Amino acid sequence: MTRSTTLAPATLAETIRLRLADDITAGRLAPGSVIDESALAERFGASRTPAREALRELAAAGLVVIEPRRGARVASVTQEQLAEMFELMAETEAMCARLATFRMTATERFGLQTLHADFHPDEAALDTYDEYNRAFHNLLYRGTHNSVLADHALALRLRLAPYRRAQFHEDRRIERSFAEHGAILEQVLRGAGEEAAQLMRVHMLTASAALAQYMRRAHS
User: The HTH gntR-type domain covers which part of the protein (predicted)?
Assistant: First the structure.
């Protein structure tokens, strides 16, 4: 899997969103800090339109609070709140893995297998792995053939996306995450839905623990 052939180029708004999310989760922007839209646009050599779009997306993810006539500021999210959100995400993703195991078509299984087999984590930068990671989970969501569950999983993913991305800053987390995907995939291909669900649950809770460790070190 190479970025040139499989990953769409980032829009300016997406670039701003990703970099600002990294600054927030790493503690470079403290909770309550004011984010000046004009200064943000100037930082990236952009107009205020992509900066405003990036702030709206970060607000949807809960990282930023936008108040009328007061602008944007970094939201305060406690470790307890993050743990609760990851707990909900773990159960949702486990259900997706279990249902997808039993409901994916042969073509969908082949697509998931190919995505994983063609990726090389030792060559992956954070942005590239983040894109692969989203694709892997999205294929499982679609594989449930349950649109309500898939939409729910996608909504949770949007809310947690910056935090799920931040965990990959931890030492060797990309390699470990990829190995966890491989174990889940093996159970999906075996038709072992309950085992796939359990591994997915552990995968998400491990991500939560990696995030907590990263944030503790970044904020210390």
Answer: 10-77
Cα–Cα separations (whole angstroms), residue 28 to 75, 120, 196: 13, 30, 37
pLDDT digits (tens, 9 = 90+) for 121-167: 887 788 899 899 999 999 999 999 999 999 999 988 888 888 888 89
CB 163 within 8 A of CB 189: no
How many angstroms separate the CA atoms of 23 and 115, rounded? 30
Q: Distances from the Cα of 144 to the Cαs of 52, 62, 205, in angstroms? A: 35, 27, 21
| Burial 94-109, CB ≥16 within 10 A → b, else e | bbbbbbbbeebeeebb
DSSP 8-state symbol, 168: G
